[in-house]
Amino acid sequence: MTANGQRPGGVTLVGILLLVFGVLYVLSSLLGLFNATMRQDLGIIWILVSLAVGVIYLLVSKGIFSGNRGARLLVGIVTVINLIGGILALFNFATIAQGIITILVSLIILVLLYGRNARIYFA
Fold it and tell me: Where are the domains of the chain?
C-alpha cells in the first residue's frame, strides 16, 4: 500500500479500463451466443474465446484493484507484447497511426503500473 493506505489513481485507472474491457467482451460474447447471424459470421469458437478473454479481463481487474502482484505482472507482460506490436506496426505505412497509439497507450499503462507509487502499492 502507499503511505496513506490508498490505491494510486493510475492503478485505479488501469483497473477501471480492464473492467470496462472485460464487461464489453462478456456482453458482446453473450450477444453473439444469442444471435444466430453473429454465430454464423464469427463462429461459436471465436465467441467462446472472446467470452474467456472477457472473464480473464474481469479477474485481472479485480487483482489490480486488490494489489495482486500476479495480476500486475500479467498486465505488464501483455502490455509489453502490445508495445512490441505497436513498434512493428510502424514499419507498415497503413498502420503507422495505430502503431503510435498502441505505443503511447502501452507506455502510459507501464508507467501507471510500475511507477513509484504503484510499486509501493503492489509491494
Answer: 9-122
